Each structure stands twice: as structure tokens, then as C-alpha cells.
Amino acid sequence: MDKLLLIDDEADVQYSFRRIFDQSGIELTAANSGEEGLKLLAGLKPDLVIMDVRMGGISGLETLRRMRQVDAKLMVIMMTAYGTTQTAIEAMKLGAYDYLLKPFDVPRLKQIVLNALKAARDMKQVVSYQPLLESEDYDVGIIGRSEGMQNVFKTIGQLASSNATALITGESGTGKELVARAIYHHGKRSGLPFLAINCAAIPENLLESELFGHEKGAFTGATAQRIGKFEQCDGGTVFLDEIGDMALTTQAKILRVLQSGSFERVGGNQTIKVDVRIVAATHRALEQAVAAREFREDLFYRLNVVRIHIPPLRERREDIPLLVNYFLKKFAQAQGCPPKSIAAATVEMLQRCHWPGNVRELENVIQRATVMAKGDVIVAADLPPLAASANSPAPPAPAAPDETKDMAALSRALFQWARENPSLKILPAVERELIIQALLETKGNQARAAKLLGITRATLRKRVEKFHIKQELAIQ
Ligand SMILES: Nc1ncnc2c1ncn2[C@@H]1O[C@H](COP(=O)(O)OP(=O)(O)OP(=O)(O)O)[C@@H](O)[C@H]1O
Ligand SMILES: [Mg+2]
Question: Which residues hold their Cβ within 5 A of ligand 2, which is an ion?
Fold first, then answer.
């Protein structure tokens, strides 16, 4: 269970936190002062601290400074009743993860807490990349004995002691994020923060402000100064996920950070210097993006100093049995029951599949089979229909007419459902569900979700707003 330490001397605030986080799966401990919070720290080992800036005794800011001396990776969210005060900004410069304005908006508070807890987990969970994972700890490991994966492991090892920038490429679901986290964990900066930013999930106009921060009045809506991720993560590692989707203007600024460690906040003229290690990843073929002038050539060469390419799963089929075993054990451990086994013929069948969604797709299939299998042994009937590989003797993928037929059958079933629930507005309801599904599938990546849905990103954004989808996904 995640542990949250609240430090605030106001009884009202403590009371509302208890109400908000009651039965949320988060264990809440409250302290009345900075001194008390600091004392609790070592014994409690909280995953997240939420602290007021103004308190009797030592200030929130001073408490934050002392906490970060003990643990530079500790996630701290500051609260302030004074939106424009310099204190919130100072807190961010000191490495606070975020800040909240009082009185707080409950959905936003929950969202910030969930984001911070995820970031804290990403930092804490050590990713092991040893190819022969004999350990009983099936938490996070990169599995693979194929030559392609051995090369990946070797490069992670070589990178560990350096500060070099790394570019991780590979199709969707091949494990790019896992590799980025392994580079962090086995590197010199593992005791310092790691912040991940998904460049494709943040609207273009907000990404620069997210990365570099902005000054008050820099653009409409910039009502206060904001500290960006680079400044917040000084000394640590920033993971720029889906960098291939970044706008050209932002690319130019990233290049400057790589060359000189410096940047200006949006709308500001003070040059800020930071020391961050950049690890980037993309599913796009950057060489092609460079040729199409969608990606800066100079930035590409700068990032490409150390390149880790993760081959698609269909090019390393010998890893499939290992991965299947690993996932069976992992899901069994999560459910607290003995792992199911799988028929040899079924594993062979899995080895012949095409796996367009790579390891993520295989992981989902095994998770589903673990739940669905009636017996202790998973057989082919427990698996969903899977795309056969083009170079395997399995039957060809279904032709278009069948898909149309399936679609018609699906629509008939939906209509039946609508008839049984007359109050349901079927079209918007289905549209909303499809959008949520696409966003879950792409982990909130709007560009890819729009592509999956066959609509433009702008249309998707409008629908997300119209159907209030963000709130729903955030509090799930
Ligand atoms: N070699 C591996 N061993 C174990 N698990 C893996 C491996 N590769 C990927 N996974 C798992 O597959 C899922 C997808 O991995 P990850 O998110 O790192 O992929 P990705 O390349 O970043 O995908 P995307 O391009 O869609 O963001 C995760 O749950 C991850 O733990
Ligand atoms: Mg990823």
C-alpha cells in the first residue's frame, strides 16, 4: 500500500485528506509540524509527502530542504494558500514534485497524487537487465536471451558508468521505457531523481512550459511563474519518451540543453543552467523523420551517440517461452496464487504469431489467459484470436469482407443493448468507450490514440473535453 505523509498544522486540512483518501488504497499519516514530519520520515518511509508551506515551527521550505538532504528522490508536493507567492516557486526549485493551491480541487489533488506516486514507483523499482533472471523477485525485469536482447543488455552495462545521452528505438511495446529505467537504475545518478515526460501525450503548446517552465504572463493563462521539469530534476535524469513527436521549435531547445545545459523559461530572458542526463525514446524511424524534415538532423546526431535498438518480438521468437514463463509467474505473484502452466503446443503457437504490439501484447494475452483459463493449464482455447506471422505456415489473416461482417454483427449486438436500455444514447456512449479504450491502450498518448481511432488529434482533443474523459482516466 502506498504511504502518504501529510504535514499541516490545520485540523481542517487533515480532516479533508482523511475523507478524500479513505478507502483509496493509500495509507495516510498526518504530522502537525515540519519537526514532527522529519522525525517520522525514517520510520515511516513514505512514498509521498504533502506539506504546507506556512506552518508554525520550521517552515515547509526548510523542512523540504532537510528532507531532500536525507533522500533526494523523496516525492514532495507543497501546498500553499497564496497562489502567486514566490515560495511555491522556490519549492519547485528545491526539487518539489508539484504544488497545490488551497483550497484544493479534489479531482486535481487526486490526479497529482496518483502521478507523483507513479513517478515515485518508477524511481524506486529497480529494473534488472540480467538476461538470466533467477531471482524470485518478479517485480521488474527485462527478459531475453536472444542475441538482439544480449546486445541491449551489453549497451546498458556500458552506459551505466557514463553520463552519455542515450536514444532508445523500437516498435511500440518492445520495452523502451523499461530499458530507459534500467539505464537510470544502473547508472551513477540512481540516487537522484528520474522524471519521465511523454512528449506525445502533452499538447504541443504546453510541452515547452512543462519542460522549461514559464514566466508569469508568458502566454494567455500563464497567471504565475512555473518551474519546468529540467530545473526540477537538476542533477538527475530526464526521460523524454516519444521524442520523435516533438515539435521542431522544442527540438531546438532540447539541442541547446544537450550542448550547454542551458535554457530560458518560456517568456523569460534569464539563462538557467542545469546538469541533467537525457535518455530519449521513440517508436518512429528518426532517420526518415530527418529526411522528411520533421526532425532536426543536428539533434538526431546528438541523441544518436549511443543508440539502443530493441528488435521487435517477431525477430526474437526464442525469447517468447521465457517471457511467457516470466509473465505467468508475475501475474500469479500479484494474485497470490500458484502460477498456471501452459501447454507446449500453445507456446509453439505463440511463437508463430506476428505480435504487432510486441511484448506488451504478449503480456496482455498471458494476463487475460491467467484469468480466463478454467484449469491449471493454459491451452489455445483460452487465448484471444491472434495475428499469425506472415512468414509462418499458419492460416492467413482474415480478409476484409469478414471484418465487415464482424462489424455488422457487433453493431446488431449494440443495437440490441440500446433497445434494452432506452435511456442510453448509444452513439455517444460507444464513441466515449472507444476513446477511453484507445487512451488506455496508448497510455494517454493522444497522437497514437487518434491514429488508432482514425480521427485527427484535434478531433480527439475535442471529444476528450466533451465527454469529460480526462477526469475519468485520472481517478481510475
Ligand atoms: N524484455 C521484457 N521483459 C519483460 N517485460 C517486458 C519486456 N519488454 C517489455 N516488457 C513489458 O511490456 C510492456 C511494454 O513495455 P514498455 O512500456 O517499456 O514498451 P515501449 O517500447 O515503451 O512501448 P510504447 O512504444 O508503446 O510506449 C511493459 O509492461 C513492460 O514491462
Ligand atoms: Mg513507451
Answer: 176-177
